[in-house]
Structures are given as structure tokens and as C-alpha cells.
Amino acid sequence: MSEPAAPSNFIRTLIDADLAAGKTGGQVITRFPPEPNGYLHIGHAKSICLNFGLALDYGGRCHLRFDDTNPLTESPEYIRSIQDDVRWLGFDWGEHLHFASDYFPRLYEFAVRLIEKGKAYVCDLSADAIRESRGTLTEPGRESPYRDRPVGENLDLFARMRAGEFPDGSRTLRARIDMRAPNLNLRDPVMYRIRRAPHHRTGAAWSIYPSYDWAHGQSDYIEQITHSICTLEFEDHRPLYDWFLEQIDAQPRPRQIEFARLNLSYTVMSKRLLLELVREGIVAGWDDPRLPTLAGLRRRGVTPEAVRQFCTLIGVARADSLVDLELLEGCIRKELEPGTPRVMCIHQPLRVVIENWPEGKVQELNAPYFPGEPGKLGARPFPFSRELYIERDDFMEQPPKGFFRLSPGGEVRLRWAYVVRCTGVVKDARGEVVELRATVDPETLNAAPAGRKVRGTIHWVSAPHALRAEVRLYDRLFSVPNPVADKNGDFKRALNPNSLEVLHGAMAEPSLASAQGGARFQFERKGYYCVDPVASRAGRPVFNRIVSLRDSWAKVREG
Questions:
Q1: Which of 408, 435, 466 is the last residue of a domain?
Q2: Bond prior to 252 in cis (omega within 30° of 0)
Q3: Is position 261 annotated as part of the catalytic site?
Q4: Which of 16, 215, 375, 401 is at a distance of 20 to 30 A from 27, taking alpha carbons?
Q5: Which residue of the set 31, 187, 271, 526 is catalytic?
């Protein structure tokens, strides 16, 4: 699939202006800097495509840097998953894999420099007291009683913090800026906290850890990043970002540019909320196909090309908006439609006995994988026997007008086979239909005699040859477009109780017995499906619905 060219946007305009003014030495160096405290979601995909895409387009490079400054929430599992996700999307950082923890010694030296300049001090206030003294948007903050400590005392205390002499949380290092600043981020923010916890890379070497705000900009400077591209929630942090760089005399300084994050309907785009769903067992892990995580999308069967196309279509803007999930689903369908083989699978089987077909006789028919596309070769044998399965909802005893499927006395064409007529209905003790009797017209194989009209065509499989399969029908995780807008503050109130329906008795055509994990198919008249790479077993595939053939959700809402 040819992906649409990346359109011009305000970020490219700013980069072009910087290059024209010679501000970056003709270079464009970007970075994707995730915190390894969860799995990436499709919102991160937008940032990945933007940062790596800009670097490629301008002949520069993009670094993958883990901002691993909080050992309490980070793990190697998250680091591995993030690397897998970036590679899955089609990008490579080459030799530029970095960690903020690699810069801990230099960050410490920078902090000492600020103390020596009188721009940072050790504060003994608790976290709650710092928060309470910060003030509000309408009230200035209150200065810490430790704000005017002598430089020598601050240097001594900071070194002892580094040596692990003090209890966790007993002291912090704060920047000395302005407690009356209109921007709350400039009201003496915390630079270091005492936190004696083992780090996944540095072990027990450090007893203090830098804040995200302190580590982020200095790490950009150390890596010589030219354009620090981040989402809008960091816009108010930009003055602090620039202030820190100014205090360490950083030249040249990275330029921070903010863009609107991706907000996708019918889901949540927060690692904190996604972690809550995982920990409470509401979903079956970070790779649950209902989640917007890249691991979940990959397991569901979504292609990286579809995700990249989606990220291109939504564009880059400055204003936040809620993107409809239908746009992503449309990109998935567009990507899957041309190259996905068509097969047949019965979700809710109803047995049909062909009374005029000899017992034990099996006719091997031929069914193409790409019907109507002569340029695409490929077919599979398709057995026809006396006993078949059709979809239960393809039969009605008392059909309404316009029902062109099977009914008593009615005819229908079986895909790639014959026209059959329903001659009888078998019911159980409760009066439910459990079996149909029918006859086949042997003169109608893939064609009807002149003058004979059969308006309906349905899919089917041979009962003796059918492959028993599990089908998982994944739907939207939430029943409202914006679940975080719940007035009571509990986004889980909007969970869709029908986000997953498991069909244990589905019957698939026998050609699917050898399908490998990750293989994608279009189940005719049903949608696009993927063989679950985790849950499937040899001879017992599990099929995940990737997306329906059309937006049935919109029709439900309209109804």
C-alpha cells in the first residue's frame, strides 16, 4: 500500500525557518522519549511517526531515549515492549538508543552548578507542605523557610543526600526561581527527591533521582537534540525547560515545540488509566485486543501500515480534538481489503442435511482466495457433502419482506456451490430450530439456468470437514465517545459490557487448519480476522475480529 505523503504543518514550517536561519547547523535531530512505566498506545504512535518521520524527511536522525527517572514505576518489560512497538511501526533508532539514567552523573554536576550560582537549594519541607505552599493560579506561593540557605550548606546537604544519609522524602533539591510567578511550574520546582529504590540500570548506586522536568531538557541538550517535539500538556513547562538550559549555559539549546496529542473516541489514552484496567483484571493484560495499546492492536491483527496511514490522515495541529474511532477503522479496512484472502467461517452454526445428496459422497469444489480479481492467484479445495453448516441468522421460518436468505420452501445459493431449497425444519423439545432439511439442484453449480432467479447467496462449510474454532468478537471498550468526561469521575462506569463476545462453537473451512499465528483473513460477509498468536494451538485456532466489513456501530447508534 502506498501511504499518503506527510502534509506540511506548523512544525515543519518552524523547522524550515530554523534551517534557513542557520540555527541548527543544518541538522534536524529529534527524539522519542517515553517513560518506561507502561506499554505504548496509539497516541504514542502519532509521536513516533512524527519524530522519526521528520528526521527521515530532513535527512537527520531520531533518538529513542528512555526517560527512566522513577525506579518505582519502571521495568525492563516496558523497555522491551517499547522497542518492539517502535520497530513494529517500521522505525529504527540505529546506534542512538539512550537512557536518561546514563546521564545521572552529568545531571548531578549540572545541579551542583545551579547551587553554586544560588539558583537551587535544599528544602526540608515535606511533599505535602511544598504542594500546599505552591499557591494557586490566583494566589502567589509562599517561600520555603530554607530558601536562603547558604551555598556551602546547600552543597553539603546535597552531597549527603547523594550519599544516602537522609530518609526518603525528608529533603528535596528545588530550583530557586520565583514563588510569585504566574506560571506555577516556575514556583521553585523540585529537581531531586530522595528515593532509595533499586534502578533497573544503575542498581543501588543512587539514593536521589531527578524529576522529569529537570532531566528532560538537560538530556535533550546532552544528546544535541535540535527540536524537542512534545504534546501540548508540556507547553506550560517550556519556560522551565528554557530556564534550566539557560542556567547550565547550554549552547546550542534545543527548541521545544508542542502539538496536540491524539484523543481517540471510545477508549482512554492514559497509561495510568490503562494500567488500572490491567491491574484490576478488567482486560486480559496490556496486549488485550480491546486496548489502544500498540501491543493490543498488533495482537488483534491491525497492520503497522494502517496505523501509520491513520497518523498521517489526522495530521499535526495545535488544538486538542477527539478523533473518531471510525477513522482508524476505515484505515484498517483500506489496508486489509486488497491483500487479505477471503475464506468462510460459520459463527453460529445451523446444520443442514441435503436429502438428495448421497451419504458419504464428497465433491471437491474450488474456491479462489481473491474472487473477482483475476490478477491475484490462489485458491483452495472446498469440500461439499451431505451435511453442511450455515449461519443461524441466514434462516428464518417467517421471513419479512426483503429477506433473501433461506426460509421454508425458499431457495438460496451456496457460495461457490449449488442452489439449495429448504424442504423441512427440525426442532427440539423447546421448539427451537436445530436442523434444516434441503435439496440441491445439481444443475446449478456456480451458475443458474436461464430464467431462474435466486436472489440470495450465503456462506457455508461442510460439516464433516469443518474446523472447530474459537472466534473472539472484539468491539469498542467503552460505550460512550469520551469516557473520561464522566461527571462522577469514574471512567469505568462507561465500560461496554459487550466489548468481547467469545464464540466457542464456530465452524471454519478446513483450509484454515494450518493457519499460523498472526495470519489475516477476510471471513466472507463477516469481517477481517486474525489468528491470535498467543491463544491459538495446533489444530485449534482462535480468531480475533480485527474490524467488521463496515461500520455497524454507527448503524446501531442511529437505530
A1: 466
A2: yes
A3: yes
A4: 215
A5: 271
